[in-house]
Write a structure and sequence with these properties.
- This protein is about 45% helix and about 15% strand.
- By secondary structure, it is an alpha/beta fold.
- It has 4 domains: about 140 residues, Rossmann fold (3-Layer(aba) Sandwich); about 170 residues, Rossmann fold; about 70 residues, Helicase, Ruva Protein, domain 3 (Orthogonal Bundle); about 70 residues, Arc Repressor Mutant, subunit A (Orthogonal Bundle), CATH 1.10.10.60.
- The strands form 5 sheets. It has a 5-stranded parallel β-sheet, sandwiched between helices. Strands 7-10-13-6-14 form a 5-stranded parallel β-sheet. The protein has a two-stranded antiparallel sheet with strand order 8-9.
- The two termini are about 45 Å apart.
């Protein structure tokens, strides 16, 4: 039977494969015809009697998969496979051969065959093997594409770092990327701490391993331990099966903990052990799990002040403060504002499918004078809103709305202490979000509550916005 027996996937994938072209190689005329007949209803088929003829075909046209009915007539299977792979290096090859020859199966797999199907075979068996070969190749192409995209996104030479402050950050990143040490990233909200962590990972030796991001402020404290370290079946109400945590998922790669200062003291102790020993237990379990995971943490808070107040463990602080990078606020890198605005204009124009050519110099001048309390995230939201409002192809001042800085100052009122109706509370929170460009962290600051509390109220009240990822 085939080496890769599993269920066919979705109907849409099968429909996509209709355009796939197959090359069938076989010397036994009747067997080759039977093989082609089994697949002809689903795929265009081209047949070749032997490997030299197949090579001539491969020099002129490309095929999605190759089916090689090996006759075992004394010719070398390995040499035949090498010749086919020379002219079709990225094309999966399914070898078909006698059931009794286990040595032949081993040779075929070592030579690079995607699968080996034994004779006699049912049509469903060969269809399954071909489907899996095409699906595997499609996934491989997609992964290769995404990796190339990551190379572009995280290319350190493409990052906008015109100002001296940002150039110093980039020099630090280049030095830290090759290490395995824990990194602490500090900076105001919206400065790009998450992007920075991705840049470190995708320019490190771990780049082909997982990169897992967790925002500790957006997950209720009762669920955060399970999210990070996983849980065993029955460890709490609703835990009907075991779950792998983010640390375990990031094994061999990197985990990025955004707003890690939101961890309670018990979780901080568990994080300390995960950093020092690279070991932990799942919630409700006693089995020690080891995971070689690099840790990058980020915060917009004053960690030293939290340590002095007893809200953050001193030993954990010293453990994460090995390598430190501070992301400068946008007001300290005004030289970067114009190239950042141009980049965001191109990117967001593609996203909203609206052709925009440039930004009026008067708008750029206004951007340079503004203090940007929401930093790059606020700049991005401002440009996106302007694109949607602008009737022309150039962003003008009339389509740009910048809140006054005092409008973003923290409010002393605590919504939790006010006796508001559900509609009134929803209206107040929606107004705070609107005033802060739908940035939850900034809205929480204005409302005087934690981001986690605001996120809970948003879910409870059913507040949504198209820009939020979960609503796209």
């Amino acid at each position: 039977m085939g080496l890769r027996g599993r269920k066919l996937t979705t109907t849409s994938n099968i429909q996509i494969e209709k355009s796939a072209r197959l090359l069938v190689i076989g010397q036994q005329e009747q067997e080759t015809r039977n093989l082609a007949d089994a697949l002809a209803a689903d795929y265009p088929i081209s047949a070749a009697p032997n490997v030299p003829e197949a090579v001539r075909r491969l020099q002129k046209e490309a095929f999605s998969a190759i089916l090689f009915d090996y006759a075992n007539d004394g010719s070398s299977l390995v040499e035949s496979m090498e010749e086919l792979q020379t002219y079709a290096p990225n094309t999966p090859i399914v070898v078909i051969g006698p059931q009794h020859d286990s040595e032949l199966i081993v040779r075929a797999v070592k030579a690079g065959a995607f699968d080996f199907v034994t004779k006699p075979f049912a049509p469903e068996k060969i269809k399954l093997s071909v489907h899996q070969a095409l699906e595997h190749q499609s996934m491989k192409n997609e992964i290769d594409y995404l990796r190339r995209e990551q190379d572009v996104v995280y290319d350190q030479n493409q990052i906008i770092a015109v100002s001296p402050a940002m150039q110093a950050v980039m020099q630090t990143i280049k030095r830290l990327a090759g290490t395995d040490s824990t990194v602490l990233v500090t900076g105001e909200t919206g400065t790009g701490k998450s992007f920075l962590s991705g840049n470190i990972h995708f320019n490190s030796p771990r780049r082909n391993k997982p990169f897992i991001q967790v925002n500790c402020a957006n997950i209720p404290g009762t669920l955060l331990e399970s999210e990070l370290f996983g849980h065993e079946k029955g460890s709490f109400t609703g835990a009907d099966k075991s779950r792998t945590g983010r640390f375990e998922q990031a094994g061999g790669g990197t985990i990025f903990l955004d707003e890690f200062c939101e961890l309670d003291l018990d979780l901080q102790a568990k994080l300390l052990r995960a950093i020092e020993e690279k070991a932990f237990e799942r919630l409700g379990g006693n089995k020690t799990i080891h995971a070689d995971t690099r840790i990058i943490v980020a915060t917009n808070r004053d960690v030293e002040a939290l340590v002095r107040e007893g809200k953050f463990r001193e030993d954990l602080y010293y453990r994460v403060n090995v390598l430190r990078i501070h992301m400068p606020p946008l007001r300290e890198r005004t030289a970067c504002i114009e190239p950042l605005a141009d980049y965001l204009l191109k990117k967001l124009s593609r996203t909203v499918k609206k052709k925009m050519t440039s930004i009026d110099p008067a708008v750029i001048d206004m951007f340079r004078r503004y203090s940007w309390p929401g930093n790059i995230r606020q700049l991005s939201n401002t440009i996106e809103r302007a694109i949607l409002l602008e009737d022309q192809s150039v962003i003008s001042k009339n389509s740009v709305s910048l809140p006054k800085n005092q409008d973003l100052a923290p409010s002393r009122k605590q919504p939790s202490s006010l006796k508001l109706s559900k509609d009134e509370e929803k209206e107040m929170i929606a107004r705070a979000l609107e005033d802060n460009l739908w940035i939850q962290k900034d809205a929480a600051l204005k409302l005087g509550i934690s981001p986690r509390a605001l996120n809970y109220r948003i879910k409870k009240l059913g507040i949504t916005h198209p820009r939020w990822r979960k609503n796209r």
